[in-house]
Amino acid sequence: MIGPSIAALLLVGVTKDQIEAAREIDRRDRAREADRARKQRQRANPTPKPDRSLTIAPASDTVVKPTAEILQYRPPGKPVGAIPEDWRPNMTGLMMADQKGLSGARLDLELQRFRDYYLSEGKLKADWNASWRCWLNSPFQEAGNTAKPGLVRATNERDRQNIAWRNALNKLEAAANAGSVPAGGAPLDDAIPF
User: Fold this and answer.
1) Shared-domain flag, residues 142 and 170
2) DSSP H or E run through 42
3) Which of 50, 83, 157, 183 could crosslink 118 through cysteines, CB 3.0-4.6 Å?
4) Is it the case that residue 95 has pLDDT exceeding 70?
5) Confidence class for position 132, pLDDT limits 50, 70, 90
6) What domain range includes position 100?
7) Which of 90, 109, 91, 194 is nearest to 147 (CA)?
């Protein structure tokens, strides 16, 4: 059924499509105004929102919110501590390293890097063998497995400069150890990275 105002619009030449478009615009305007009014009411009288943080749901219908004790729980016998200086990975870690192509001197170098990193950072871990496995699965290790031992890939200009200087110092040290440094101790020209 057509209302009198719509019939009047049709008589003056307004099409049904134009009337529907006007209705849609009016509906959107009313929805926007209602949304604005709702937001103003919320700002004037804020209601606390439910805490939707991590909840642990047991088999029953009750919901238990995590406490500090629950979130910091560690199995007995797994204290957090610094890495021992003489730490070596267990057999699983050694087999995983072998699968990644680390053995012999390269494995020793990587173990030393791992220990030095965690000693220098002072990081504490509950399971150093798990940390070693994570270290081996790191994307940085994936990039390094195709390179020569000791070769580090530069990620930015500063890293490139540091690597160039490190390589220069290594060349000078190797030359000094081989006895090929000229008299007077002048550095080798090809060792300086500029």
Assistant:
1) no
2) helix 16-44
3) 83
4) yes
5) very high
6) 80-149
7) 109
- The first and second tokens of residue 89, run together, are 């990975």
**Token pair recorded at residue 31:** 């929805």
DSSP-based three-state secondary structure for 159: helix
With respect to residue 135, please indicate whether it lies within any of the assigned structural domains: yes
- Taking CA atoms, 190 is separated from 105, 130, 136, 162, 176, in Å, by 28, 43, 35, 16, 14
* Alpha-carbon torsion angle 76, 81, 83, 87, nearest 10: -30
Measured CA to CA, the distance from residue 132 to residue 93 in angstroms comes to: 7
What total number of domains does the chain contain? 3
| Rounded Cα gap, residues 27 and 38, in angstroms | 16
> Are residue 142 and residue 158 in the same domain, yes or no?
no
The whole-number pLDDT of residue 87 equals: 86
* Contact indicator for 191, 172 with CB cutoff of 8 Å: yes
